[in-house]
Write a structure and sequence with these properties.
alpha+beta, Immunoglobulin-like, about 20% helix
C-alpha cells in the first residue's frame, strides 16, 4: 500500500504536466513595415515572399495600405524575404527566427532608376489610351 501512494502521485503529476509540456509554442511570427528609403512613407501593398531555406516552401503575403505585413505560425529557421513593388528595386532580406519568437522588421526600398528619372525630369511616363 505504501508503494501505491507514490505511484498514484506520479501518475497524477504526469497526467497534469504532459498537456502543458506539449502546448509549448513551436512556431514563429515575422511582422514589419515596408517603407520608402527617401521619404520613409509606407509602401502600400508591396508583395512579400518568405522562403524557408530548409525546404519548407514559400509563403506570399501583401503588405496592407499602411505598409504593414505579418507571417503567422511559420516554422522556425532561416528565411529569405523577397519584397517587390512596382516602381521600386527588388529587395532581398535574410533572417533567422526561433520558435516562439516574433521578429519585427523595418524594410526600406529604393525607387527604381526609371522611376527616379521620371520624377527628376518633371515629365510623366507616356500613357496609351484606347
Amino acid at each position: 500500500m505504501r508503494i501505491m501512494v507514490p505511484v498514484v502521485m506520479l501518475v497524477l503529476f504526469l497526467a497534469i504536466a504532459v498537456p502543458f509540456l506539449s502546448a509549448q509554442q513551436t512556431t514563429a511570427t515575422i511582422i514589419g513595415k515596408v517603407i520608402d528609403e527617401a521619404s520613409e512613407e509606407p509602401i502600400l501593398e508591396a508583395t512579400l515572399s518568405a522562403e524557408n531555406l530548409s525546404g519548407g516552401g514559400i509563403i506570399t503575403r501583401n503588405a496592407n495600405k499602411k505598409g504593414k505585413f505579418r507571417f503567422n505560425s511559420i516554422s522556425p529557421g532561416a528565411y529569405r524575404l523577397t519584397i517587390k513593388h512596382e516602381g521600386y528595386e527588388l529587395k532581398v532580406v535574410s533572417c533567422v527566427i526561433n520558435a516562439a519568437q516574433t521578429l519585427n522588421l523595418k524594410i526600406t526600398m529604393k525607387k527604381s532608376s526609371a522611376e527616379k528619372e521620371s520624377q527628376n525630369s518633371g515629365t510623366a511616363l507616356p500613357h496609351t489610351f484606347f
